[in-house]
Amino acid sequence: MTGQLLYPEIFQEGDLFLKETALYVQQLTKIMTVTITYYDTGGWKKSFVGPEFGGTSLPRILYRAVSQRGAYIDVEDCLKHPSYKFINLDVNYPMIRFIACLPINNQQGTIIGAITLMDRKPKKIASVTLSSLEIISKMVCFHMHSAK
Hints:
The chain has 3 helices and 6 strands. It is globular, with a radius of gyration of 14 Å.
């Protein structure tokens, strides 16, 4: 299950459904920032709620890892993780301590986007919440397919 590995610098704005879905995920998880990104024939789209974490490549790096692995990845505390602790140390921006990325798969199993969660505090996502996020990922894919 591989997907779109090229994660752009610039996105088009996602639709209202995805914005509302990101808000729902934020309320469900109590995470500071939720971003839903996906690729369709019109290019890359993005909907998010919460502050953006500029100045870091961490979301791009984690998305690439999720695309290659084909499954959910989280880093409960970036400062304690050997691969991620030095990535987002730009002092001009708030530091990401928690980041998680869940792939959005189309009906063929190809990864076409992701739900990314970011926070300034270390976190752990409960398994029941992860199950809910997997259902939401399928709903997002269904919405994108039916919107065409």
